TrEMBL record:
<protein>
    <recommendedName>
        <fullName>Prephenate/arogenate dehydrogenase domain-containing protein</fullName>
    </recommendedName>
</protein>
<dbReference type="InterPro" id="IPR036291">
    <property type="entry name" value="NAD(P)-bd_dom_sf"/>
</dbReference>
<dbReference type="GO" id="GO:0070403">
    <property type="term" value="F:NAD+ binding"/>
</dbReference>
<keyword id="KW-0560">Oxidoreductase</keyword>
<feature type="domain" description="Prephenate/arogenate dehydrogenase">
    <location>
        <begin position="18"/>
        <end position="300"/>
    </location>
</feature>
<dbReference type="InterPro" id="IPR012385">
    <property type="entry name" value="Prephenate_DH_fun"/>
</dbReference>
<dbReference type="InterPro" id="IPR008927">
    <property type="entry name" value="6-PGluconate_DH-like_C_sf"/>
</dbReference>
<dbReference type="Pfam" id="PF03807">
    <property type="entry name" value="F420_oxidored"/>
</dbReference>
<dbReference type="GO" id="GO:0004665">
    <property type="term" value="F:prephenate dehydrogenase (NADP+) activity"/>
</dbReference>
<dbReference type="InterPro" id="IPR028939">
    <property type="entry name" value="P5C_Rdtase_cat_N"/>
</dbReference>
<dbReference type="GO" id="GO:0006571">
    <property type="term" value="P:tyrosine biosynthetic process"/>
</dbReference>
<dbReference type="InterPro" id="IPR003099">
    <property type="entry name" value="Prephen_DH"/>
</dbReference>
<dbReference type="InterPro" id="IPR050812">
    <property type="entry name" value="Preph/Arog_dehydrog"/>
</dbReference>
<dbReference type="GO" id="GO:0008977">
    <property type="term" value="F:prephenate dehydrogenase (NAD+) activity"/>
</dbReference>
Length: 474
């Protein structure tokens, strides 16, 4: 049967189209259903928890091509291509329950952010005749999939099975990246683990200080705009999106631990200042990290962020999410005259590059391969800082000589170490509680940040198309 699907598409006659099954209708499951339906696929069978059946059935009543079924048994028995879109923490339990009901010869994929548990579950519970071609869209549900990397993993499948998956998911307009399970987990750790840890730490630090940084007048414009928007974007998502990658991916644990260590060691040198050669060692360490990460090869590339000006128009507070509902002020707001280029240590960025250097990670290796929009933007601002000698000298001088941001940097270091310890404990409950406690502080800000963050990422991605076209000519 698979051989007849080599050229199948949503315009093919109904009898030739495969039945596509989605087990799990969270944010990403819904995104997949939306794009598949919009593309014109006519046989999309979906399910969520049995307790949500009636509500889901009413919600998708009249949606073209989508049929809601009671549970994963019904979806598995009827579908030719099945995608498990469930949290990595629960993938084994769900596949153990529904895997035996997989249709004879069906192709099965998982949409988890960590593939090691998924691989074990599929090999253990799927029938031997089931073919495994897994996938992972490297972006959130609110980001357009067009042009974004979509990882495909042909693990236990024929070329025809891979062709079926390619044909079905072509509706997204994404860029296919072909990896193994092990390669996927290494690449996603390199591009997401530390990036998430950095922004989670920023948010926790701000929450502990009980202040929204963009209202203080000391962290405004350019790079700070990107930090704020992405931090709020992360905390507006579900906690499990990040917990699975951090806790279940062994590569991620190593990197998150190193990030906390880098932030701590740099902060200790900042406190030493000129005593016992601390200033010289701080500068030498920062310059060493720059040479490792942004060496000669990096200088040949067109920068991701040509100017901070592109970020300025996405500052929070300029366009309230809802004029009729005033945004809540910081509990400890003390607005100071805003200065666009107030020098600060940029400790989160210094620690990021220091972490990459110590782990011998070249972030540019993954930029074209499988970079998420958030990773691309954070790498862009780090590159912007480190490739400008003037900006880097200013950050180093501020780190060593200014004291106004020391308490902020201290809170950041404590937060980074706290997230590292949380991940090392391997507790989803602890991760959940820590995430939600910080999230509560930013309630009321997510809608505005979500709109601005999406527009900011869109603008950066449009610039990236131009940059990549320029680099391809070099």
């Amino acid at each position: 049967m698979l051989g007849s699907w080599d050229d199948v598409g949503p315009d093919s006659p109904l009898e030739r189209q495969p039945t596509i099954g989605l087990i799990g209708m969270g944010a990403m499951g819904r995104m997949y259903a939306q794009y598949l339906s919009k593309a014109g696929w006519n046989k999309i069978h979906v399910c969520d928890l049995p307790t949500k059946y009636e509500k889901l059935k009413a919600e998708y009543n009249g949606v073209p091509g989508v049929t809601v079924l009671p549970d994963g048994h019904a979806v598995g028995r009827s579908s030719d291509f099945i995608i498990y879109s469930v949290e990595a923490e629960f993938i084994e339990r769900v596949v153990a329950e529904y895997g035996p009901s997989t249709k004879l010869g069906a192709v099965v994929a998982g949409q988890t952010s960590v593939k090691a548990p998924e691989k074990i579950a599929f090999e253990k519970y799927l029938p031997q005749d089931a073919q495994i071609v897994s996938c992972h869209s490297l972006h959130g549900p609110s980001v357009s999939p067009v042009g974004q990397p979509l990882i495909l993993i042909r693990h236990r499948a024929s070329p025809e099975a891979l062709g079926l998956v390619e044909n079905v998911l072509r509706s997204f307009g994404s860029r296919y990246v072909y990896l193994s399970y092990a390669e996927h987990d290494l690449v996603t750790a390199n591009t997401q683990a530390v990036t998430h840890a950095a922004f989670l730490s920023m948010g926790t630090a701000w929450a502990c200080m009980k202040a929204y940084p963009w209202e203080q007048g000391l962290y405004v414009g350019g790079i700070e705009t990107a930090k704020v928007n992405i931090t709020l974007r992360i905390y507006s998502n579900k906690w499990h999106v990040y917990a699975g990658l951090a806790i279940l991916n062994p590569n991620a644990k190593i990197q998150i631990d190193q990030y906390a260590e880098s932030a701590t060691e740099l902060f200790k040198l900042m406190l030493q200042g000129g005593a016992e050669g601390g200033e010289q060692r701080f500068r030498e360490r920062v310059e060493w990290a720059r040479s490792i990460v942004f060496g000669e090869d990096g200088k040949k590339r067109t920068p991701i962020l040509l100017s901070e000006d592109v970020l300025d128009r996405f500052s929070l507070g300029r366009t309230p999410a809802s004029p009729s509902v005033p945004l809540p002020p910081s509990p400890h707001t003390s607005v100071i005259g805003q200065t666009r280029n107030n020098a600060n240590s940029h400790l989160s960025l210094l620690a990021m590059v220091d972490c990459w250097a110590h782990l011998k990670i070249n972030p540019f290796d993954h930029l074209a391969l499988a970079a998420t929009p958030i990773f691309r933007l954070f790498l862009g601002v780090a590159e912007h800082l480190f490739r400008s000698q003037k900006m880097l000298d200013s950050a180093i001088h501020s780190a060593l000589c200014d004291t106004w941001h020391r308490r902020d940097d201290l809170e950041f270091v404590v937060a980074a170490r706290g997230w590292s310890q949380c991940v090392s404990f391997g507790s989803f409950d602890l991760y959940h509680r820590r995430f939600e406690e910080t999230c509560a502080f930013f309630e009321g800000r997510f809608e505005e940040a979500g709109v601005l963050g999406s527009e900011m990422i869109k603008a950066i991605m449009e610039n990236e198309k131009v940059r990549e076209a320029q680099d391809s000519k070099l």
